[in-house]
């Protein structure tokens, strides 16, 4: 094993640490670089992965200073390559680290830079620069960059479609996975589009169909929960007809979860559906019947959490709540252990 591989592993450990220290990660990298330049020892020479790893440590911390440092390191490795260091040819991992940095920065101009850089990679790859074939991480970072954008969900969908079209033939190994679909679903849930629940439900259906032949795309409980949340939270001016559709989607998805042999509801599923009821069903006997039935399911499943109790308190009538749990608020309620 080359000494550089050990240092690469140490730098990567900084990136995965709960308290990453980019300065310490770079100090390791600089020691490798200095040792190689002083001794000419190829065994400690940093490779393209080394450059990418130290860039990623800075990138994930976000902030303008860290973004600036990532750009400086990118310029440094690009210049070194142009001056004859063939081993340091900027590849998809290095470009991906720069995209990640743009995404974590948060500024609008850097979100746009992330999109342009990904587009440039695709164009150059298709023109014959095979080392710039974007990996799934590049698309994930570009989509994550849209989280604070006004039209972030729409852009995320475009990027997802772009990856689906790109991941054919020799690039079939780049097919989107559940992680990427869930990320796009989450961005949909945060947007202000009246029809976001309809769009999210359509994407969930797509995951279900793809999951029949590709387990990597099969939705999990988080996929369903995100759709339920999307049904519950909507712009104040949402048309009543769309709200009716939101309720229909929520009912269909919670039934699907409760009857599934492979994906089971968790406490967030019950809490999210009960929240849907509080926002989509008028106060009265019908709402109490639905909410009471779903709360009983949560109790029978041993999934009554603080989240479920809070949602139940908002959705249930005072009479239903007190019949079930007695008087008092959710903070003073003592629930049976089996719940």
Q: Radius of gyration over alpha carbons?
A: 25 Å
User: What is the count of helical runs?
Assistant: 16
Number of separate strands:
0
Q: Percent of residues in helical segments?
A: 55-70%
The ordered string of helix (H) and strand (E) elements is: HHHHHHHHHHHHHHHH
User: Which residue ranges are poorly predicted, with pLDDT under 50 across at least 5 consecutive positions?
Assistant: none
Average pLDDT number? 92
User: Oligomer, anyone?
Assistant: single chain
The end-to-end span amounts to: 54 Å
Structural class assignment:
mainly alpha
Main beta sheet: strand number and arrangement?
Answer: none
Shape verdict: elongated
Percent of sequence in beta strands: under 5%
Any overview of this molecule?
The chain contains 16 helices and no strands. The chain has 339 residues and is mostly helical. Helix content is 68%, strand content 0%. The relative contact order is 0.05.
Write the layout of secondary structure elements.
Layout: H1 3-16, H2 22-39, H3 48-61, H4 64-82, H5 92-105, H6 108-126, H7 136-144, H8 152-166, H9 178-190, H10 196-211, H11 221-232, H12 240-259, H13 267-280, H14 285-300, H15 306-315, H16 318-325
Helix pairs in contact: 1-2, 1-3, 2-3, 3-4, 3-5, 4-5, 5-6, 5-7, 6-7, 7-8, 8-9, 9-10, 9-11, 10-11, 11-12, 11-13, 12-13, 13-14, 13-15
Brief account:
By secondary structure, the chain is mainly α. It has 16 helices and no strands. Helix 6 runs antiparallel to helix 7, helix 9 (178-190) packs antiparallel against helix 10 and helix 12 runs antiparallel to helix 13.
